[in-house]
Amino acid sequence: MTMSQLRKQIGIIVGLLVLVTAGYAQKVTDTERRYRTGVRALQTGEYDRARNELQVVMQRGGSFAPYAYYYHADASFQQKKYPATRTTIKELIDRFPEWRKRDEAYYLAACAAMEQGLFDEALSYTNLITDVGLRPDVDRMERNFLSRITDINRLKALQTQYPKDRTLALALIELIQESSTDKADLELSDRLTNRFGVVPAPRAPRPAPVTQPVEVAKTKPAVVAKVKGTVNVGVMLPFRLDRFDPDDRTRTNQYAYDLLEGMKMARNKLFTEGITINLFAYDVDNDPDETLELLNNAAFGQNDLLVGPLFSEPNRLVSDYALQNNITLVNPISTSHDLITNRPNAYLAQPSTWQQATGAVAFVEDQVSTKKAAVYFGTARKDSLLASAYAGELKAKGFQVVDFKRVSGKGMSLGLTESNKPSHVFFASSNEDDGIRMLDAMNRSGVVGPLVTTYPAFNYFRNSLATFTRRTLLMLAPEFMDLGRNATKTFEEAYITKRSILPSVFVAQGYDLMLFFGRQLAKGSLKNRANLVTSPDDDYVLSGFDYTQSNDNKIVPIIKFDGARFQKVN
């Protein structure tokens, strides 16, 4: 039993105890006996008997009557007698309009109406619910049923009637984006997107209802069950909807929206493969308390895969939760190996800092004549971490590190002499101006060996082609998109058609991540490491994944300019 269900059970039981104590003292009346018998019958799945016993209590009235109405309607629902459920709830509300558990009744009536496709009636009930504790269940129920509607005009009419219903608005946005090219529809989608923010859920067939008997403590019917081929994905990124400005194109968290957009594109592709992906977006920033509140929400446990969070303390909480509940956890952009240490269910989509250093040294070792190297790094913390890891791996391979220091700005000084010139230089930098400066510094110092550097160290639009051909220049580039591959071309064309701009690397990362883990989870392949690897011919946009040895992505792309374009050389 979940905490939310327990709270609801306690609320009803306490109410009954008060009623029994005040109205009936020590004497057990025939009405009370019938009520208890009806409740026990509901618990054991004897729905006809439950309805018969509770019917008597309903007719007699009194303090037990509203509860009898509710459980009578619940028994009808379990028998899939949805019209009877709706009728009983209407009678309950008519006779006891101030009943303190009426929100539970509204929810039950809405579920029954949804089952019959009476979406207008169902939404009229859900919009009466004021209990915030029920909202996650209401939202989930609405998502599951509204996804059945394929008629845009019908959804538009409902949205006009219930303009404040966020879930309804998001369902309409999703349907428009997937099936309409009408200018008015697209403008409506933009207006709703600006008003309500991120679209968290995909369009997918609703899973079948649970049919086995439920305990009476479950005062609302369970309407969702896991279906083979369906994967629920929780995307926990800092969307910061409270500060969302649709006109701000320079927001610092644009990467979160790009990652989600890539996942949505992959979801659509997987659907053509018979794999249904349900995406649920959660706005998770650097707030442990809000993260705990989310983890304590019963609806959150439906997820099969969690992507994120990105901040350390929320990530620790979610990592513990995922481990306890056997949920696969993937960090989309972090390169910290600590996130997967002693976490068999946690994966890094990008190769860790250590893995990048190991892969780079393994490749460079065969490219140089002597085992002397100089290692430099820029001002960012991740630059120094990668440089330290690279230097450590060099030493483990028997290299001599002749220089190791931070460099930045114009006029970089390497401090090398004729006696300690390295056979190659490694430079980790996140500044696009630093790469050209390092090449100049190497020329001034008379270093003729290769420069091994990071992909963000250059500006590929401003730097001339000669920059990349004057000496051997190798780049460590997990973010590399090879436009010579058909899969990458197709992806880029699809994104440009939809958004009229080039996709960022974050869109590609979200796309590849969702494509790979969606397939693995749908096939149940995560337990077999031999399957956890892609090939260069697969349809991924970046360089793919390799988890055959650990949960750290072993693929570390190294690229080189061949005179016409950059190509992967390892």
From TrEMBL:
Signal peptide extent: none
Source organism superkingdom: Bacteria
Record flagged with keyword Signal: yes
Gene3D superfamilies: 3.40.50.2300, Tetratricopeptide repeat domain
Stored CDD domains: PBP1_ABC_transporter_LIVBP-like
Domain Leucine-binding protein intervals: 273-530
Domain Outer membrane lipoprotein BamD-like, chain residue ranges per copy: 33-164
Keyword set, alphabetical order: Signal
Family indicated by similarity: Belongs to the leucine-binding protein family.
The name this protein goes by in its record: ABC transporter substrate-binding protein
Organism the protein comes from: Fibrella aquatilis
